[in-house]
User: Which sequence fits this backbone?
């Protein structure tokens, strides 16, 4: 069995796009299984930054992109990203589950409206219509891709949706035109994926957002509207848990968060601004500055535990270069009690005082020096950088097998 799942362990933006690209190079399929165009997954190839919102970033490796039933699909994005793949010489037909729900213009309008109603308690969504599309799905009034291809069904569904929202749902004709264009791509994805796995083909399941943004397991209500954790692979793709042989967690060497919500290790000072600039921490989808903080082990332990992570890919280690000391939050103090594993309960996290360990830093290295290190391998990393990685391994109890030290694909070290 060769199902490999990639799961973000923090609040998204961990660098899953690059890791998915690396792990998809020998895969038959790479699958987006939750979320929609709120995701912004990048891969840097030959100096060019490729941004994917709807197709899995792993498809830049040539693996066939798939979009599973549990996603909410922005059809315009699919068309744009097919062209993006063509521009790098990949002419491929993505496979799209006919059961996936579509994001309509009305969902984006509602996303704006709900944020305005919240006024001081903004979630800070990506405004991509994700929450409203998922809530229509849960209300059983959503429109699936297959519905766009059936005029009679569509007419009654559009009426129901408009009656419910008391709003026009927007240019449905456009959605129909795109769905027709993609009609050869829509399929019973579950059957294709199960058969491929049974034949021993490798499939990568590319998670979007991160564990702490999961609607059930994250820092609710400051979360996205889907399950971002391992269970979503099974429910969205119709794959049984035994068909996944490897679960890879991706974490950044520090922590970031976009949008509102509790963040115990957040840096609200100059040091945070320096890390933000150095790590180019601005949203791929929205361009918003990301909030930045130190590594948070109690939350990572939780993420690793609930996803049954086998091994970890650590990204952006290079961004921490040049610091004299690097703090790692190893535990919390909450009302005098020590917390080792933190469930993302907002009230508890608001009271949490991080307890830090301080590790020695390593010199600031230029890109060229990092490139040489990637050619020479793990032992070529500065000793204190290796100690940083090994300390994290010990703290979370899982091996870190891949360390990324630059955005480009090849800027990584296999441990
Ligand atoms: P939504 O998914 O657009 O509804 O946004 C809900 C929350 O999830 C907001 O805090 C967003 O900033 C965050 N979010 C959604 N997608 C991503 C992502 O791909 N990376 C990081 N944060 C995200």
Assistant:
């Amino acid at each position: 069995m060769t199902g490999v799942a990639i799961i973000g362990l923090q609040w998204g933006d961990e660098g899953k796009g690059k890791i998915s690209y690396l792990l998809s190079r020998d895969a038959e399929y790479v699958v987006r299984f939750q979320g929609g165009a709120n995701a912004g997954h990048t891969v840097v190839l030959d100096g060019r930054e490729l941004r994917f919102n709807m197709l899995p970033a792993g498809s830049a490796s040539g693996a066939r992109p798939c979009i599973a039933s549990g996603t909410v699909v922005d059809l315009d994005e699919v068309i744009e990203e097919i062209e993006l793949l063509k521009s790098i010489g990949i002419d491929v037909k993505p496979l799209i589950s006919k059961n996936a729900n579509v994001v309509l213009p009305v969902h984006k309008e509602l996303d704006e409206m709900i944020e305005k109603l919240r006024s001081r308690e903004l979630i800070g969504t990506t405004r991509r219509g994700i929450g409203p599309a998922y809530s229509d799905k849960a209300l059983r009034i959503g429109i699936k891709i297959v519905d766009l291809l059936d005029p009679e069904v569509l007419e009654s569904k559009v009426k129901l949706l408009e009656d419910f929202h008391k709003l026009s749902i927007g240019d449905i004709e456009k959605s129909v035109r795109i769905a027709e264009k993609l009609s050869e791509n829509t399929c019973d994805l579950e059957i294709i994926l199960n058969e491929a796995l049974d034949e021993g083909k490798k499939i990568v399941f590319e998670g979007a957002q991160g564990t702490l943004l999961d609607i059930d397991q994250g820092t609710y209500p400051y979360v996205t509207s889907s399950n971002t954790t391992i269970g979503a692979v099974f429910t969205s793709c119709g794959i049984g848990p035994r068909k996944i042989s490897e679960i890879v967690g991706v974490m950044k060497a520090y922590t970031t968060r976009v949008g509102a919500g509790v963040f115990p290790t957040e840096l609200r000072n100059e040091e945070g601004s320096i890390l933000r600039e150095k790590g180019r921490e601005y949203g791929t989808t929205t361009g918003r500055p990301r909030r930045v903080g130190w590594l948070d082990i109690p939350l990572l332990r939780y993420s690793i535990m609930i996803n049954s992570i086998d091994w970890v890919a650590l990204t952006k280690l290079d961004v921490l270069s040049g610091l004299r000391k690097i703090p790692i939050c190893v535990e919390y103090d909450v009302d005098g009690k020590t917390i080792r594993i933190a469930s993302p309960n907002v009230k508890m996290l608001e009271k949490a005082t991080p307890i830090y360990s301080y590790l020695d830093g390593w010199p600031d290295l230029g890109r060229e020096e990092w490139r040489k290190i990637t050619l020479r391998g793990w032992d070529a990393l500065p000793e204190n950088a290796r100690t940083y990685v090994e300390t994290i391994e010990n703290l979370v109890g899982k091996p870190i097998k891949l360390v990324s030290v630059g955005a480009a694909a090849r800027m990584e070290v296999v441990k």
Summary: The radius of gyration is 21 Å. The longest helix spans residues 151-165.
